[in-house]
Amino acid sequence: MQKVLKELKDKILRALIIRPLVNMKFLNYMYPHVHGPKERLIIKDPGNVHLQNTLFNTRCGTITLGRGVMFSHNCMVLTGKHDYVSKDIKKIRDIVEEGERSIEIGDGTWVCTGAIICGKVKVGKHCVIAAGAVVTKDVPDGCMAAGVPAKVIKEI
User: Fold this and answer.
1) Torsion-angle region of 99 (φ positive above 0: left; ψ -120 to 50: alpha; else: beta)
2) DSSP state, 82?
3) Contact between 112 and 129 (Cβ < 8 Å)
4) pLDDT tens digits for range 81-101
5) Annotated active-site positions, please?
6) pLDDT digits (tens, 9 = 90+) for 10-25
7) Measured between alpha carbons, how far is 149 from 43 in angstroms, rounded to an integer?
């Protein structure tokens, strides 16, 4: 009986609270978001990637995802940049769209929870980007990268 009541409570919670908040964009725990031109997000095999609620910023370059790429929750893949040297607040807030800061993520790579990938970088095939890592440099094929900034910690 307790199990049935818990399942009913969970269904009601999802139906009446969580789903409406997701639909109104107040809560995002299920869907990816593309900030910038959507055509710059290139997915080689759309039926074979897991995006979760990843944020893709395509303002300053393309993002290419190989076959079988997996993202855990709350990841970010960022090509955008700002003029942080300027003293003018408007220039700092505006995104600098020129420049090539594209990101490529190879086949079979797993990007773990909370990882951030900043362009311009290439993450190789069959890599693991550890939870909370901030990737700012290329990661070769078959490696695990972790840390802030991310460094290769072992070959897999």
Assistant:
1) left
2) B
3) yes
4) 766 677 777 666 666 666 688
5) 82
6) 788 777 776 676 666 6
7) 26
